[in-house]
Design brief:
Elements lengths: L2 H19 L7 H10 L4 H12 L2 H5 L14 E2 L14 H17 L10 H22 L8 H8 L8 H11 L11 H4 L2 H23 L4 H23 L6 E3 L13 E3 L1 H8 L8 E5 L8 E5 L11 E5 L2 H13 L4 E5 L5 E2 L4 E2 L6 H5 L7 H6 L7 E10 L5 E7 L11 E5 H7 E7 L5 H7 L4 E3 L11
Parallel strand pairs: 4-6, 5-14, 9-12
Antiparallel strand pairs: 1-10, 2-3, 4-13, 5-6, 7-10, 7-13, 8-9, 10-11, 11-12
Helix pairs in contact: 5-8, 6-10, 6-11, 10-11
């Protein structure tokens, strides 16, 4: 068989196969032919293929006109502090939250005394509490079918290392805090995936057992007793992977240079919390978000999505970016850092630590355009909050309008700009989602709006993924 006959036979066979498989709405052979005809076989397309096939898309899409030196001056900046590293874990929410607490302590001490909190300590109780939340939620919904939306939520997400600031507030108030030096990181606290899979598997097994106990009419006391035994097994796994939580310790406070400035003293986690934080964290702040899909000046709460069963659901006041910026600027001017969250993977120049909507031009590279607005990106799961960082600085123009912002990240001091990211105000508008701000920087009107009865939102909403 010559080459032309072979090719013709192959095309007919292929067409027959596609035709046989064709159903209305499927890809037809004719559609494939039309797509092929639209592919330009010119030298430009061939050169693009050769380049893209052998290189990183980001390297090729990088906007050279926007690749100059990043302006690092900020007109208003909070005091600098050390940069931490969450390593291969999703604990950015904890790092950012503890950054705020240690910054507040240093501010109260006129920067003469500093503290660095142990993430491993709080993470232990976060995982134990999330295990209890899953098991108790399984009990609460045990009479629902296994494919019920909420039952599926608990079994699909039995435990995670992601979260939000409300988790820091609830956990720290309940269990206290300890210095990083008395309970350092372990391999599993910095690399959480294997530990999480092991515990998740066990929790799913336990969840089925608890559902069976409810189905068989076991009394509440027996069910709660069995749940306590299950949590004991989780506690054991956590003790072996993260270390058993510190109960009492001796600690000496130092200045920013590490020099001791007070005698060594014994503390418990709760007394250390009282000394360094002072009082309650809950009720001192509000959480705001920018979700252009929904009405502004309304509150929203995520049902059952919290860190502790007896703690607080996520609750947000939805605001335009203008209002969010005003509160953020007021807080920064007062020297107070803030928990904030972003879709950090969009238009990130990691090497320069720079976030700008003009960093990469994917449209020109591929001969297309990307035209969705912020609301459309959220609605279609194309964008949403993925990572928490600590908002620390703003650069204002002569009229007091923000030009750029700076955040402390938790990817190590050698990442980005000295461990920080700088973002343009336009990028901030498009990819900033959540802010936690002290109530003293919030107007009376907005505080009143925050107290209205919230609309309950299910955890599968596109915007309510955990920060990690």
């Amino acid at each position: 068989m010559n080459k032309k006959v072979f090719v013709a036979t192959l095309l007919l066979a292929t067409a027959g196969t596609i035709s046989a498989q064709n159903k209305e709405g499927g890809i037809t052979y004719q559609m494939i032919q039309q797509m092929e005809k639209k592919q330009n076989s010119n030298a430009t397309n061939k050169a693009l293929f050769n380049a893209i096939a052998s290189n990183s898309i980001d390297n090729l899409a990088k906007n050279h006109a926007n690749a100059g030196t990043v302006d690092t001056y900020f007109s208003n900046e909070t005091p600098k502090q050390s940069i931490h590293n969450q390593k291969s874990s999703g604990r950015c929410w904890m790092f950012s939250g503890l950054n705020v607490l240690r910054s507040n302590f240093a501010l109260a001490q006129d920067q003469k005394m500093t503290v660095e909190y142990s993430q491993a300590y709080l993470f232990f109780y976060d995982q134990l509490e999330k295990a209890n939340l899953m098991l108790q939620g399984t009990i609460d919904y045990a009479k629902k079918p296994i494919d019920d939306k909420m039952v599926r939520f608990f079994f699909q997400n039995p435990i995670s290392d992601g979260g939000t600031f409300c988790g820091v507030a609830d956990l720290a108030e309940k269990y206290g805090l300890v210095p990083m030096s008395v309970m350092p990181e372990t391999y599993s606290s910095e690399n959480t995936s294997r530990m999480a899979r092991i515990i998740s598997s066990k929790l799913r097994e336990f969840g089925l057992e608890l559902r069976d106990m409810v189905a068989k009419g076991k009394n509440k006391k027996a069910i709660q007793s069995r749940k306590a035994e299950m949590l004991g097994e989780v506690y054991h796994i956590l003790s072996l992977t993260l270390g058993e939580p510190v109960k009492e310790f001796t600690y000496t406070f130092t200045d920013k240079n590490g020099k001791a400035i007070a005698p060594a003293k014994k503390y418990t986690p709760k007394s250390f919390y009282e000394f360094t934080v002072g009082g309650k964290i809950n009720d001192t702040f509000i959480m705001v978000m920018n979700d252009p899909r929904r009405p502004y000046y309304k509150t929203y709460e995520v049902e059952y999505d919290r860190h502790t069963y007896d703690g607080h659901n996520w609750k947000y006041l939805n605001l335009p970016m203008k209002d969010i910026k005003e509160m953020a600027i007021a807080s920064i001017k007062a020297g107070r850092k803030m928990y904030s969250s972003y879709d950090v993977g969009k238009q990130l120049d990691r090497k320069r630590g720079y976030l700008d909507i003009n960093n990469y031009d994917y449209g020109t590279l591929f001969g297309t355009s990307f035209g969705m607005n912020k609301a459309q990106r959220i609605e279609t799961f194309d964008s949403g909050s993925t990572h928490a960082m600590t908002l620390t600085a703003v650069d204002l123009d002569e009229n007091g309008n923000p030009k750029k912002w700076k955040v402390e990240n938790s990817w190590g001091s050698d990442n980005g700009f000295g461990g920080c990211f700088i973002m343009t105000d336009k990028w901030f508008d498009e990819y900033m989602f959540r802010l936690v701000v002290n109530k003293k920087f919030v107007s009376e009107k907005l505080l009143k709006d925050y107290e209205q009865k919230p609309t309950m939102v299910t955890p599968d909403d596109p915007l309510f993924s955990e920060d990690n």
